[in-house]
Structure formats: structure tokens, C-alpha cells
Design goal:
41% of the residues lie in helices and 11% in strands. The chain is built from six helices and three strands; from the N terminus they run ααααααβββ. α2 packs antiparallel against α3.
Length: 132
């Protein structure tokens, strides 16, 4: 099965859903795959790359290790209150520019200004000492 997937994988554009649409003839098999992908990755099978899912399964050792909640398995640990709070804590004190698609980033010593210049769509320019 892995060899078949590797042959048909073009770059990283295939999803588990697109692969299942081409290979599974019955709906219960597709639904099982959708539930498995959601449980393992937290995403719908059409919203995750097949390559990243296969990497996750392979690096975990098995599908069972990815899905189980017993000690030593991927789903063993949980963050009380959800993982969103990690991003929120990391963002504390940072200037966050939402809805500002970046056009280009320049790294240079500008006279009297921080060394990073971020050009956003709409003409907005953000100066910073660093960028993540």
C-alpha cells in the first residue's frame, strides 16, 4: 500500500480524502478514514496533506500508536484549557498584524530604524528588530 501511495503522490498536493476518493469504492471505508484522520491529526481528511499524515503514522510506528490514548501513545498528553493558550502566551507583548498579507521582507540596516522592514498588501510597512 505504501508503494502505491508513493507512486501516486505528486508533490504534497494529495489529501487523504482525494486518495480515498480514487481508491475506496464504499462509503463506510471513506467514513472510517475521515474519522481516523480527524482523531489523529485534528483535521478533516480533505484539509491535511497525505504526505504529512503518512509521515506522522510512520514516525509514530503505527496507526494504533497515533490514535490510542494509553501511556506512550501520541494522544496520551493533553493541555488543560486547550493548546490555543500556548499561542496566546507566546504572542503576549508582541505586535501582531492580522489580515495583513506580507508582500516582501527586507533585512537591512536602516538609519535610525530597526533592521527588518515588512511590506504588507495595501502599502503598510512594519519595522522590527526581528520577525517570526
Amino acid at each position: 500500500t505504501t508503494r502505491l501511495v508513493q507512486k501516486q503522490l505528486i508533490g504534497d498536493s494529495k489529501t487523504p480524502q482525494s486518495w480515498a476518493d480514487a481508491h475506496f469504492l464504499n462509503e463506510p471505508a471513506q467514513e472510517l478514514l475521515t474519522q481516523l484522520v480527524a482523531g489523529v491529526s485534528g483535521f478533516h481528511s480533505r484539509d491535511v496533506s497525505l504526505l504529512s499524515l503518512l509521515h506522522l503514522i510512520r514516525s509514530s510506528g503505527s496507526v494504533e500508536t497515533c490514535a490510542e490514548t494509553t501511556e506512550g501513545c501520541n494522544q496520551e498528553l493533553h493541555v488543560v484549557g486547550g493548546t490555543q493558550q500556548i499561542s496566546e502566551k507566546l504572542a503576549d507583548g508582541l505586535e501582531i498584524a492580522l489580515s495583513s498579507p506580507v508582500i516582501s521582507i527586507e533585512y537591512a540596516k536602516l538609519s535610525g530604524k530597526p533592521p527588518v522592514r515588512v511590506h504588507c498588501r495595501g502599502g503598510k510597512i512594519v519595522f522590527s528588530k526581528a520577525i517570526v
